[in-house]
TrEMBL record:
<keyword id="KW-0411">Iron-sulfur</keyword>
<keyword id="KW-0408">Iron</keyword>
<dbReference type="InterPro" id="IPR015931">
    <property type="entry name" value="Acnase/IPM_dHydase_lsu_aba_1/3"/>
</dbReference>
<dbReference type="InterPro" id="IPR001030">
    <property type="entry name" value="Acoase/IPM_deHydtase_lsu_aba"/>
</dbReference>
<keyword id="KW-0479">Metal-binding</keyword>
<keyword id="KW-0456">Lyase</keyword>
<dbReference type="InterPro" id="IPR006249">
    <property type="entry name" value="Aconitase/IRP2"/>
</dbReference>
<feature type="domain" description="Aconitase A/isopropylmalate dehydratase small subunit swivel">
    <location>
        <begin position="702"/>
        <end position="829"/>
    </location>
</feature>
<dbReference type="InterPro" id="IPR015928">
    <property type="entry name" value="Aconitase/3IPM_dehydase_swvl"/>
</dbReference>
<dbReference type="InterPro" id="IPR036008">
    <property type="entry name" value="Aconitase_4Fe-4S_dom"/>
</dbReference>
<dbReference type="InterPro" id="IPR044137">
    <property type="entry name" value="AcnA_IRP_Swivel"/>
</dbReference>
<dbReference type="Pfam" id="PF00694">
    <property type="entry name" value="Aconitase_C"/>
</dbReference>
<dbReference type="Pfam" id="PF00330">
    <property type="entry name" value="Aconitase"/>
</dbReference>
<comment type="function">
    <text>Catalyzes the isomerization of citrate to isocitrate via cis-aconitate.</text>
</comment>
<dbReference type="InterPro" id="IPR000573">
    <property type="entry name" value="AconitaseA/IPMdHydase_ssu_swvl"/>
</dbReference>
<feature type="domain" description="Aconitase/3-isopropylmalate dehydratase large subunit alpha/beta/alpha">
    <location>
        <begin position="84"/>
        <end position="572"/>
    </location>
</feature>
<comment type="similarity">
    <text>Belongs to the aconitase/IPM isomerase family.</text>
</comment>
Amino acid sequence: MVDTPGPPARSQDSFGARGQLTVGDRRFEVFRLEALAGRFPVDRLPYALRVLLENLLRHEDGRHVHPADIQAVANWAAQGGRAGSGEIAFSPERVLMQDFTGVPAVVDLAAMRDAMAAAGGDPGRVNPLVPVELVIDHSVIVERSGRPDAFAANVEIEYQRNRERYQLLRWAQGAFEGFKVVPPGTGICHQVNLEYLARVVFATDDGQAYPDTLVGTDSHTTMVNGLGVLGWGVGGIEAEAAMLGQPLTMLVPPVVGLRLTGELRPGTTATDLVLTITELLRHHGVVGKFVEVFGPGLAQLPLEHRATIGNMSPEYGATCTIFPVDQATLDYLRFTGRSPEHLALVEAYCKEQGLFHDPASPEPVFTELVSLDLSDVEPSLAGPARPQDRVPLGQAPASATRAIATQRGEDPGQLTRRQARATLEDGQEVTLEDEAVVIAAITSCTNTSNPQVMVAAGLLARNALARGLRPKPWVKTSLAPGSRVVMDYYDRAGLTEPLAALGFNLVGFGCTTCIGNSGPLLPGVSEAVRSGELSVAAVLSGNRNFEGRIHPDVRLNYLASPPLVVAYALAGTMALDLTTDPLGEDDEGRPVYLRDIWPSEQEVAETIRAAVSSALFQERYASVFEGDERWQAVEVSGGQTFAWDPQSTYVLKPPFFDQGLELPPPPADIHGARVLCLLGDSVTTDHISPAGSIRPDSPAGRYLQEHGVAPADFNSYGARRGNHEVMVRGTFANIRLRNQLAPGTEGGVTRHLPDGTQMSIFEAAMAYQAEGVPLVVLAGKEYGSGSSRDWAAKGPALLGVKAVIAESFERIHRSNLVGMGIVPLQLPEGRTWAELGVDPTEPVEILGLSALGEGQVPKEVTVRIGTVEFPVRVRIDTPMEAEYYRHGGILPYVLRQLAG
């Protein structure tokens, strides 16, 4: 693959690193790390920092990148691996998007073109300067399942609902240079990235070669780390700036070395491994840090296992989890159809730059070390509400019982299981109980890229079918692979039919259940769950199981490997111990245990060898950007600027650039603010950002009905991210949000102050805006963990939130808040709201922010809530972020820079 990513880097090359590399009959300009070796211990740098160092050498311009920045990274190992206090500017070479986060980014770029044109400038100057690839993978919803026509029906519904969004993306595909779109029904962006888009080493048509680096608008961009590609998820706000040539400012990161030893035991899967690592690293504490995998156990991990681990980085809070390039990388590139010429370049470049893993070389210097013996991994799930809460398979029943007891405030040992009768679609009467599994979904990028676990699921289904087992009738089953190649090898292996016979028919190529696109439960099930106030479960092979995410009627959500998803569909309940209890009986009445139908490693390996080939990847990706006749038939309107439809309920021109090119007033202290929300620990972006289904009685639901949209056509919040009117109404509206300002409530409820009237958070925010009252949010630890949702910052900004004061922040969300002009403020280490004893109904003053308007970045400012006064740390971490804040956000800053 040859790329033209924009103007070549014009490095000042203070260290004389520019050189030539010959590969076959081609010559490339490269920036050699060896040029620094005599002065700095470059050979002891972790792999990730070597990639960062090359990026700085090539982009040294005297403005964003200075010689001192290069020295800070080059000397990192000599400093003992300590995180740097200085800021560096990382320039990712491409941007990856999925459609949920990509659509609002395109909306913003289109609005920036309008603003540029309105100011008399050239709208064409608003154009990506690096390659941008958007994969439409988040729009398909499991409306139909368990039937042969499920895929065709779901795709047809997807096009009907999303035509306005797809019109925008088709326009962008033609209007922006270097902007490519992978149409619907192709695969999940991270799997498409792994199997096709990732270069590992760029080769440009102007003769440059350098490492493939990227940022993505999805947290799980880190999946490509398994291929040795450095990249991570950012908010859509940062991604838009990167598209427009702005470097990503960051501190030289700490790098945690994850040392692997031993081998996985038979019967354990990549999913079990990654859930173990998630628990281990979340406990160790790696938020905002790089993780790099090394050690003798590395050689035991196939590339697909490495990608599975990289994918889960956000679940333990790491910025990325990188694996060095080695022979496994080259084998995977060859296997997935990359050209011999490109393979030769990757190998030659990485070996020349010291980026090719050599087990005989000295181990890199790391900031911290964590060790894991692979033989300690055991079959596991994670849940019922967080991916880091690993549960050994045998303890799953006790986990579910404890969770239900906690929800109800009861003693687990005295818990009475509730029951309710349900009439299913075929008229069958069944009794549903607490812990019933009502969703079993093979879905998400984490596992569906891995033939080992996908083939294991198919073989387990075949074995179960042969023993006469069937899923329980109340379980909604679905299969949503990450790429079309999966169905190709299922067909070749004869596994499509047994999976379909158990209800695991293909429903789409997309994220589906993992992002809340579960669709309705089977007819009659939701009614029974609600009438009986049951706590029922979903089991999915995804990476996210936060409260309220999977389905509004499901309170227990467990992550599991694809074969375990099939097993729980057969069991129909979390109350069974699958290590000792039978899944059911065969046709002769004999008990059938999970161990009886679990495929052997040898059988899985032989099936993969026979069914999965390089030709499958080459055929599927030969015309990946073209799409089918439905995609080609989507109408395109507009030229350099987009033709907005003011009646659209999917895509509206946003208000973020209404101020045009004029600078806003300088930052000032905040007086007379009110608390909109008082939140606890681990409030995720799923709690903040609109996600999942839209309820008819919600502010967003009422807005849509007022605009002629029937509830059946609401679609999801994710699909309507291009309409700020819907999104602002859905901010803080998660059904599981607990706002302590309105005790005893659940959902998007608050009290308007000082009168104390209880109302929706949106209604209260609009009342405060009418009164001219600024707003703040108070929160606990890990505020903003989870997906890299830009609307978790955009929504609060439109509600009028000026500051978030929390005990700690997750990395991406903190940055996004600054990017939307909201100041993140952190309580002193160890202090809590309970300890401070604040009264959240009192007015809030924030004193000292005016220094930002004077060009300073104060380390601390003072917060006064009623009579309680305390210092807080200003989490504007770099001078560049301070500049963004002074401009009212990163996008207005970029627009003014482009306008000159």
